[in-house]
Amino acid sequence: MNVLFKNIPIGIGSVELIKFIDLEFKNCDFERGDWSVSESAIEMLEKQDSFTRPIEQFSLVRINPPLVAKIIIQKLNGCYFNELQITVREYSNRSISNDSRHRGLDILNNFVDRRIQDRRKYILVYSRLI
């Protein structure tokens, strides 16, 4: 399962993130051999807001099995990592077809096309310029 870690302190690498996950997860019932996180399964990314210009670092981590990933999400969401509160959630791929902001646009386009088509068919006999 892919897990998204948001608001990670700037300059933290994948090794430090693995150590942080290990330290926070030590007290659970699972052993380290039961679940896996490797450096190759971590992708560190940065994003800069164009309006306020802060840099935000986040990471995508692939954790197996999914049950352990859900436990890690519950345990680490909202905890502090180097004095910054991080957000941990399941990563989901987003598509335009599932975006609610784009729903209903097809109906509007069909309606507009129909109105344009109606105007081309019929001549307005009783129309005048004002």
Q: What does this 3D model show about the protein?
A:
Helix content is 31%, strand content 23%. By secondary structure, it is α+β, with helices and mostly antiparallel strands. It has a domain of 89 residues: RRM (RNA recognition motif) domain (Alpha-Beta Plaits, 2-Layer Sandwich), CATH 3.30.70.330. It has a four-stranded antiparallel β-sheet, with helices on one face. The chain has a two-stranded antiparallel sheet with strand order 4-5.
CATH topology of the domain at 2-90: Alpha-Beta Plaits
Overall structural class, as computed from helix and strand content, comes to alpha+beta
Number of helices: 3
Whole-angstrom Rg = 25 Å
Q: Please report the distance between the alpha carbons of the first and last residues.
A: 66 Å
Report the CATH architecture of the domain at 2-90. Answer: 2-Layer Sandwich
State the CATH class of the domain at 2-90: Alpha Beta
- Overall pLDDT, averaged? 77
How can the largest sheet be summarized? Answer: 4 strands, antiparallel
As a percent range, the share of strand residues is 15-25%
Q: What string, H for helix and E for strand, traces the elements in order? A: EHEEHEEEH
Per DSSP E runs of 2 or more residues, the count of β-strands stands at 6
User: What sort of overall outline do the alpha carbons produce when their principal axes are compared?
Assistant: globular
Give the CATH superfamily of the domain at 2-90.
Answer: RRM (RNA recognition motif) domain
